[in-house]
Amino acid sequence: MDKQIYNMENIDIAWCPGCGNFGIRNVLMQVMADIGLEPNKTVIVSGIGQAAKMPHYVRTHAFNGLHGRALPAAVAIKAVNPELTVIVDSGDGDMYGEGGNHFIHNIRRNANITAFIHNNMVYGLTKGQASPTSQRGFQTPVQVNGVILEPFNPVAVAIALDTPFVARANIGDRDQAGSIFKQAIEFNGFSVVDVFQPCVTYNKVNTYDWFKENTYSLDDSYYPSNRNKAFQKAIETDPLPLGVIYKNENKKTFENSLSVYEHDKTVLYERAERRAELQALIDSYQ
Fold it and tell me: How many helices (H) and strands (E) does the chain have?
């Protein structure tokens, strides 16, 4: 399948030239094409932010919601129609800041959705204040003396809560990122991919070169099934590890745990009684 099937024609992409979001979009569309995802059976869900504009730039079904609220919508979409491939596209502020509570509790639910979190360590949409993942000492127009807080570690939190698929990618290495994206989408369960991508306008510290110099790739001898070893990798910061860091293939998904599907696998919106209710509602307005 050609990735151009997902390309939106005649649109102006409101990202700065050189933004890492372009790379994520290109890799995402290529991986979707390699897997063979049909646009009408794929949904991209987002909240608010530069990363959250992704649904506007990829030709699939889309839901663009409130700040930090992408995951509840994505879980509901998947629960109502488990046949859909549901992808959440979010930023470090949207997912780990405003959406932090939903991040934690969707890990508990384990819905079969994939979350790609664009981590540029700054709030890009709102002009450059520190985000939850900004490094200590990072100076912004708001944090004029530098960030004093410990940066949020999403990989460590995800593994601590037993998220069944946890990975980190650097969009500066598109081949590795593509491999990670593909594994995440194909995984049966909640997949979290923290994606390093530079904000070329508001973060002059964590650049393409910085991410290259301050990361390393896990080699083939690393097996992600050991949770204790995965957590040890997650708390490494100098340098930061890239790759699939943790994987647990033995967890039941949220959709498979719902009692409504226990005896009838028909998706909810297609069930006869639901269609009758909807038709009655339509008739009442005629």
Answer: 11, 8
